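Hi Y.,

Following your request, here is the sequence exactly as I used it, all 280 residues.
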Amino acid sequence: MSFVADLFNAAGRVAVITGGGTGLGFWMSEAWVKNGGKVYITGRREETLKDAVAKLNGISEGSAFYVHGDVSVQADVDKLARELSAREDAIDVLVNNAGTYKSDTKAPDALLPTFDSSNWASLFTLHAWAPAAVTSALVPLLVKAAKKGEGRGSVILIGSAGADFWFSSWPANGYTVTKVAEAALTKTLANKLIDHGVRVNTVNPGIFPTQVHDASASRAKEHADFLRRSIPMKRDGGADDISAIFLFLATKASAYVTGQEIYVDGGWTLVANGCSDANA
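Below is the corresponding structure, written out as tokens. Let me know if you'd prefer a different format.
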């Protein structure tokens, strides 16, 4: 094995990825399996999880498993911890990836949206509480892994580049605020766990073609115009883009990195807040 391959090696390591059945979560799961690791994925839709696990095991038999549940519900977080503790002695990587987007309703003549409290509560629960609760539930397994060294015991939060935006046409909504809270959580968890060898970092993606960011054929021209005007690299992010930074943070390659936010956004955050319009 080459020096570089050894740095990013996942062989014999176990990852847990919430929301791992689709989008970024599936791409990271796929990268982990291709790199020799074992992965457990979670999600609310069991059929989606079954399909994803079948695809992953088609790459490497016996490398992927799922635990059905909703990480925004305490009982399901407890179930996840119980099942993983029964199956594994240690967890090398935890990716808090589960997320959603719900915008607040804004009347055409209103200065601000209505800021629906139930919408904000569900977003805060999923984006801020759930990563904290899942990390807390799995931390004994993460600490056991960290004691083995070589970058094991890594926690990765999937945030959003949108947490850093405030330009005039960027929507004021609970999603952005909860992603800011998630970034703050990274610093808190990293500080609390550093003495135990567990590392905590955040990845902030920009625009990726997932269910959250629909780039369907019906919106192809509008989306292409948006990319040309707004993203310096003039394209969406793809599977390789998120997989590369995931493998870095999940392996020995980042053993000296904790408490950090890394943006994977094609340069969007370099220019967006200097624009008076999102498409300028």
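The chain has a mean pLDDT of 91.

Thanks again,
Q.
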